[in-house]
Fold GntR family transcriptional regulator.
Amino acid sequence: MTMGEATVAEIGPRLRAGGTEKDHDLVGSLVVELQERINAGEITAGTWLRQAHLAEQLGVSRTPVREALRRLEALGAVEVIANRGARVRLPSTRDIIEVYELHGLLQGYAGAATAAFINSEQLERLTKAESLFRQVVEDLRTTTVDTAEVQRRWHEANTRFHMVIIEASGNRHLVEVVEGLHRKVPRNLTWIALGNDVRRLEKDAAEHARILDAIVRGDGAAARELLMSHARHAGELLVRAVDEIGPGRSPHWG
């Protein structure tokens, strides 16, 4: 989705299937759905989230929509501007630096543990995710590929790869912590720094390949260092991209 009104027509049927507007879980379900779409880039940074528009498409009143937006604001995913409404936050430079510092530490910790504890099924999934990066680069080099489709596939590969590492680390609480960071700086935003630049995508794919190799070899120290470096590099690219957008300007991503 590009800038403009948020289109969430698919949410309504799923919410209504789980109960009526009076159900306790309605607002929570709406929060989760919107957060997932923000993370995936279907609702981009800067998009205005109009209560009336959302309520109409979801088939609910404005009350649960208003409460969901308040919760998203508390989570740092949305900003509410007086007399204007709510919109998806564009993270600040400080947000990005701090979040990616934590990402590096957490991913590094997870990578070191994963190198020691990953099982064969998890390793197979990690290997498949890594191959998706290389396939996207190859497709970009040899064919004309739809930008939205490339972004979707890269996002899918990135999500799978890093979530397998977190899962394989054996720390059950790590997923929750990492998801909290994604609410501050949605994972899809790295795409604005990579875009369709084959050289950048190729370098990113190579970083994932080295991380996989360290895990396969059981080298926890190397996996930790590579993942910390990977997070640092991603944060630096994103800071430059956001700085180029500049204050008061709207991003046009995806």
In short: The first helix runs from residue 11 to 17. The radius of gyration is 19 Å.
